[in-house]
């Protein structure tokens, strides 16, 4: 108990956590085959970046990094709209399709 | 009391004209019945022309008063920005005209596609003008999201949907890397402003090992940008997306998309990270050589013309990267002008080429294999002649704009003693000529095969005809009298710093 209380988290902890989350998201995009899950992994990557932005802004004592997070959240929301639109229009045509099934284009 | 930044309305007038105009077209277009033939396209082209006029006024103003940084240093209005704006606006107008009859043929008529073009163009213009990495990211996403929709916009073709999904997943993936790069550079430098980062980095002395955050950030930024410009090894999406997307959308991606991505790359690398050029220049060197080699060689083994042109666009991206690499040498005056010149000349060429392709693919936009060009020389000699001019220009034939473009980047590389890049580029240029010859042989010299008579005839509507004619004229004029364009690109060297 006293050991845990003695440790105070520093900015580096948050940066490392951000990097780990970003890595999990990146690996997820590469290994998962469900378009929706791939899409969620991209959102995870963006939010990992948000965490890094906030941590760095705290360290620099600068408000700019924190406001950036709002822009990123809006952009992510806009991406959701378009991405889900594309996924829904594919799923309507071929229910249950995975990324491996959607492979008409190659050469 | 909140202090609002003062806004220089004239400087952002091109963006306002485009946005306001296209919203007007969208709203009136969706409230009224289908407009007469070609009117959506013509109104979008008129909009582009109006924006072009304002950009010319601004070009003069910047010439007299010098570059300015506006809206709290968020946007930089200099001749670099304006050159890209002019290029993007012209490309938007041309692509809109070439889309008109395509949409009619595919029964997709409506104002939406044109609105997407203009929204994407606005994103591209913000990217080129951005003086802040966060604004750059917003511009990038505005462009990209519109491009995802355009790629998937052919609702009845599975290929189009698939290319939209692939572009979306991989594009979002690359954007995340780019954003992470921004975050780390922000952490190392303390600001996201591009000009100020450049100033800070030129003063700051990093002790060895202290700049790990900055170097990691630069690496991630390079990944994101290399993906957007489709440089090898981040090119995997290009052939699939170019093949599957509706052909006019492909020409928009290859022209405006590339223009914006390279403008952003040039500004970030030379202005913000200019003092650290020795760190990023080797990366660009590798990307450039890999792109010209892989682009030229893989293009040859394709059988689908849209895929061929996708690989050839990767090769062209490699050529432009040679100019970017040259811009990383200390005291260089040729890198940025030669890259901008290449971008403008290539944009017009690629729009002309894809306009011809979109006519030849016939109804359904499916027949894009090389066999569908068979006999075009007999059926439509003028169209085949125009295509020949475009292909020769892309191969770098003298008297065409393609020669001027390739010459200027290779000269920039040679002046900076990057002889290895220059030699590889020249060899790759010869190899890629084979690909363009293949299409020409198919058009002019292949014998007709059984079943050819049953094919749908290739028709040339006037809107597409105007685009092809304008592109041919520009290709030849810029090839014979390039002086004025080269002077304009030299003016682009004076940027906000």
Structural summary, described in words:
The complex is a heterodimer of chains A (107) and B (497). Chain A has helices spanning 2-6, 11-31, 35-60, 64-93. Chain A has a single domain, classed as Helix Hairpins. In chain A, 77% of the residues lie in helices and 0% in strands. Chain A has 107 residues and is mostly helical. Chain A has four helices and no strands. In chain A, helix 2 packs antiparallel against helix 3 (35-60). Chain B is mainly α and 497 residues long. Chain B has one domain (13-491). In chain B, 73% of the residues lie in helices and 1% in strands. Chain B is built from 19 helices and two strands. In chain B, helix 6 runs antiparallel to helix 8. Chain B starts with 12 loop residues before the first helix and ends in a 6-residue tail after the last helix. Chain A binds chain B through residues 15, 22, 25-26, 29, 35, 38-39, 42, 45-46, 48-49, 52-53, 56, 59-60, 62, 64-65, 68, 71-72, 75, 78-79, 82-83, 85-87, 89-90, 93, 99, 102-107, and chain B through 134, 137-138, 141, 145, 148-149, 152, 155, 158-159, 161-166, 168-169, 172-173, 176, 179-180, 183-184, 186-187, 190-192, 239-240, 243-244, 302-304, 307.
């Amino acid at each position: 108990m006293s050991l845990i209380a003695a440790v105070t988290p520093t900015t580096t902890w948050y940066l490392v956590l951000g990097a780990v989350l970003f890595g999990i998201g990146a690996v997820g995009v590469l290994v998962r085959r469900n378009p929706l899950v791939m899409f969620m992994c991209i959102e995870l990557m963006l939010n990992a970046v948000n965490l890094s932005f906030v941590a760095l802004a705290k360290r620099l004592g600068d408000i700019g990094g924190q406001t950036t997070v709002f822009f990123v959240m809006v952009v992510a929301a806009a991406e959701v709209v378009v991405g889900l639109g594309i996924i829904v229009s594919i799923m309507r045509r071929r229910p249950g399709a995975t990324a491996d099934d959607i492979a008409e284009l190659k050469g | 009391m909140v202090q609002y930044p003062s806004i220089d309305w004239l400087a952002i007038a091109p963006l306002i004209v485009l946005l306001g105009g296209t919203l007007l077209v969208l709203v009136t277009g969706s409230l009224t019945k289908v407009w007469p033939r070609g009117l959506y396209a013509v109104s979008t082209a008129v909009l582009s022309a109006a924006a072009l006029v304002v950009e010319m006024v601004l070009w003069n103003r910047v010439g007299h008063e010098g570059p300015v940084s506006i809206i709290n240093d968020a946007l930089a209005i200099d001749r670099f920005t304006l050159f890209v704006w002019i290029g993007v606006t012209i490309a938007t107008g041309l692509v809109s005209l070439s889309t008109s009859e395509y949409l009619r043929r595919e029964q997709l008529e409506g104002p939406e596609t044109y609105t997407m073009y203009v929204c994407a163009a606005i994103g591209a213009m913000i990217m080129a003008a951005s003086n802040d990495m966060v604004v750059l990211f917003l511009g990038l996403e505005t462009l990209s999201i519109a491009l995802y929709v355009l790629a998937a916009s052919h609702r009845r073709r599975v290929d189009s949907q698939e290319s939209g999904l692939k572009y979306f997943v991989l594009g979002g993936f690359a954007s995340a890397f780019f954003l992470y790069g921004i975050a780390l550079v922000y952490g190392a430098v303390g600001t996201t402003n591009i000009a100020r980062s450049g100033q800070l980095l030129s003063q700051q002395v990093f002790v060895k090992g202290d700049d790990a955050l900055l170097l990691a950030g630069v690496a991630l930024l390079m990944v994101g940008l290399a993906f957007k410009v489709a440089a090898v090894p981040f090119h995997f999406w290009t052939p699939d997306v170019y093949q599957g997307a509706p052909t006019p959308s492909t020409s928009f991606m290859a022209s405006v998309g590339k223009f914006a991505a390279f403008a952003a790359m040039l500004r970030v690398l030379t202005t913000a990270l200019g003092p650290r050029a020795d760190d990023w220049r080797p990366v660009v060197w590798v990307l450039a050589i890999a792109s010209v080699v892989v682009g030229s060689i893989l293009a040859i083994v394709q059988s689908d013309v849209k895929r061929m042109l996708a690989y050839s666009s990767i090769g062209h991206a490699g050529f432009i990267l040679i100019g970017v690499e040259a811009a990383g040498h200390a005291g260089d005056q040729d890198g940025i002008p030669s890259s901008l010149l290449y971008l403008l000349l290539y944009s017009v060429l690629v729009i002309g080429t894809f306009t011809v392709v979109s006519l030849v693919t016939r109804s359904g936009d499916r027949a894009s294999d090389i066999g569908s060009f068979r006999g075009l020389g007999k059926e439509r000699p003028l169209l085949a002649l125009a295509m020949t001019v475009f292909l020769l220009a892309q191969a770098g034939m003298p008297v065409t704009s393609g020669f001027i473009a390739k010459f200027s980047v290779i000269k920039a590389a040679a002046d900076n003693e990057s002889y290895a890049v220059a030699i590889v580029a020249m060899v790759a240029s010869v190899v890629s000529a084979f690909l363009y010859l293949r299409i020409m042989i198919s058009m002019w010299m292949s014998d007709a095969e059984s079943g050819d008579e049953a094919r749908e005839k290739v028709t040339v509507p006037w809107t597409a005809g105007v685009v092809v004619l304008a592109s041919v004229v520009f290709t030849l004029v810029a090839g014979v009298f390039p002086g004025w364009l080269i002077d304009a690109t030299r003016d682009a060297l004076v940027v906000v710093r």
